Structures are given as C-alpha cells and as structure tokens.
Amino acid sequence: MRLAYRAWFALPLALLLHSHAVAQTEAASASAPLRQIRAEGEKHLTEEQVVALAQLQIGAQVARSDLQAAADRLVATGLFAKVTYNYSTESGGVAVTYTVAENPLYPVYFDNIPWFADSELSDAIRKRVPIYDGSLPAAGAMVDEATAAVSELLGSHGLQVTLQHQVLGNPAGEGEVQEFRIQGASLRIAKLEFSDPALLENKAIRIRLSELQGKEFSRATIDLFLAEDVRPIYWQQGFLRAKLGPSQIRLSGNPNQKLPEEIPVYVPIAPGPVYHWQGALWSGNSLLSTITLDGLVGLRPGDVANGMQIEGAWDRIREQYGRMGHLDARVEPVAKYDDQAHTVSYAVAIDEGPSYKLGKLILTGLSPNAEKRLREAFPVAPGEVFDKGKYEDLLTRLETHKERVFGDLPLHYETVGHWLQTDAANATVDVLLDFK
Q1: Same domain, 286 and 324
Q2: Whole-model pTM?
C-alpha cells in the first residue's frame, strides 16, 4: 500500500510538470508582429547597421525564439563579444532592443597578393559585406565572408592559391592588423627601388637591400624594413613626418600574361621638412624635476629634432623611474607640430605610480652553494626600494660574466628565466630567477 501511495502521488506531479513545460513552449512559440527594433551600445557601427545584421523585418510575425536567433546571428558575425535583448508588447505587437558590446576591429592588410590593388580587393569584399569599411574582427562570419570574396576574385582569374588570414602586429606602424596572405605562389622580390636616391648612399641600407633581393615577396617584410631600417635614417635628421611608401609593384609587358615570379618593388618617399626642437611641457612629475627630464631628452630649443633621440628619451625616463622603484611609471608624450615654423614640442603626461620594495627572491635550478652566492650578490636587500637598473645589471652579469657572481663554483646553465611579480596592494615586487 505504501508503494501504491507513492505512485498515486507522483502521477499528478508529473502531469503538473508536463503542463508547465507545455506552457513554457507555448509562450516561447507565441508570435506577434514586430513593431520596432532598436540597438544600443554600438560604437564603431551605427544603429541601422546593427539592426540590418539582426535580419528581422518590421511587420513580420516573431516569437521569442526568433528574437534569440537574431541575437545569435549578431554574435556569429564576430563583430560583437556579447549581445543581450529585451522586448515588450505594445500596440498589438513587439518592440525589441538589442544591447551589444563590440569586439575590436583590425585594419585589413593584404600581404602578398600583387595581382590586384588594395582598392580592388576591398571592393570585392564590400560586394559581399556592404558594411565593410577596411577593418574586420578577429574571426566570425564577417571574416569568413571577406575571405570567400577575395578567394572568389583570385579564382576568377585562374589563380590556384590558398588564402589565409590572421591577426598580428602591424608591420607598418602601431597596433594590430587582420592580415590576408596567400599560400601556393612562388613570388620573389626582384629589386627594391626608392624615389629618394640619396637613401642608397647609406651602406647599411645597401646591405639590407642585398639581403631582401631574391627573398619571398611580402609587403610585411618590406614594411618592416621601412619601419626598422629606413625610418630611423630620416628621423635622425629631423624628418619626423617622412612618408615612406606604401610600396608599389611596377610591372611592364602584357598585363594579360601570367604575373612573373620576380616582382619589382618601388617605394615612394616624401621626406618633408626638417623639424627643430621647441621643448617639452611636463605634467604629473614630482620625483624628477623638469630640469632632470629635459636633461634626459638631451635637446635644446632650436636643435634639429632627432626623432630617435626623442623616442629614446621616453625610455630613458622610464628607466630612471625604474631605478627609484617606480616599475609602473607611465610616460605618455603627445607631439605638437608647427608646420609653419617647422618646430615640434611635446606635452608629456607622467604617471609615476607606486614605489616598490623587494619582496621575495625565488631561485630555482641552482645548487645550495650557488644559491647562497647569488643571494649574497643580489644588489637589493629584501625590504629595500627595488632598483630595476641594478637588477638588470645583475642579469647581464649572469648571462655574460657569471664568474663575477659565482666565483669559481662549477656551474653550468644555458638560460636564465626571469620574472618580476608586483603586488600593488603591498608595494612589493617578487623576483623569480630560473636557471636551466
């Protein structure tokens, strides 16, 4: 009887649960005409673009499942990290608002597709992705569509290559780019020419050009060369706004014939005017005086504005703060150019941050005797202000003159891993050295 009682009790409960599930399903499937669709939270896109990507039509019958499907479509584009929505019923219909959080967008960079100008490649993408403006998210349906568009353009010209994409550091400047490059084409740099013939008077440039000639054609390689080898030459002479490139491919002969494997590259260069140093306006500094900061820059008003010296000054200032334990110090310079007088000045905001003291020194991979020697040689005692300069000097000795630290101890290691772990709450920094 007891067992029968339980069975009799469970039956209405099961019916109740079933009824509740049916009610939920009916609520989710109930539909009404869509009267209004809004979007908020967008920054790069417009509300109209977000609404279009949701693919909902005003006047169409929609259920809650349709509203969720639209949110899923928005996320699938790759443009949004998060999409939520809320809706209400009014005037016999539904009004819905989507709240979006956008993903980062990256400028598109075409690396080694010399058959087409960037504008042609961008036009091909825009035909499939109307909202494309030259930038794409890291991944998602929008990137897939862009890849398909470029692949289709390549295939329509009989090019049997594979198109790949990835987000990486911008070879031509700061930030990151969404790079498109092909696999399956044997293209090499035939020669690299500049509009400024004086550049070839530099021996280092001539050596680098000989190294690039015959190598795989890649705009990224060329842009890195321009940024790391060519730009410093102009900056040192005060050509702070020299325009380098973009590189151009100059082919001769029948354009209907197959593109040769040897690609001649031309780089237009516009040096612009020579700028002179006007000065720096410092803010946020209390530990280092204006005189000290000016001295770290090392330029006087009227001097040619050596761009490499100026860039190095910001690093020297950070290093100086590091010697005082201010490991998080930030130096944020903003240049102001006077294009009439050809002068440059800087407004430099400094955030000195906290001063750290040495916390724990953690050593791994050493014998007890070697560890004792290193602790004795460590230039900062626990509880003292952490001098990053002295710490880096020790790292140099460990890598180049370990006998100055360990004496005649028999010791063999190839690398020294080193990490600093800051604790802002306690203003301490732990040091980890790993010997392998």
Answers
A1: yes
A2: 0.77
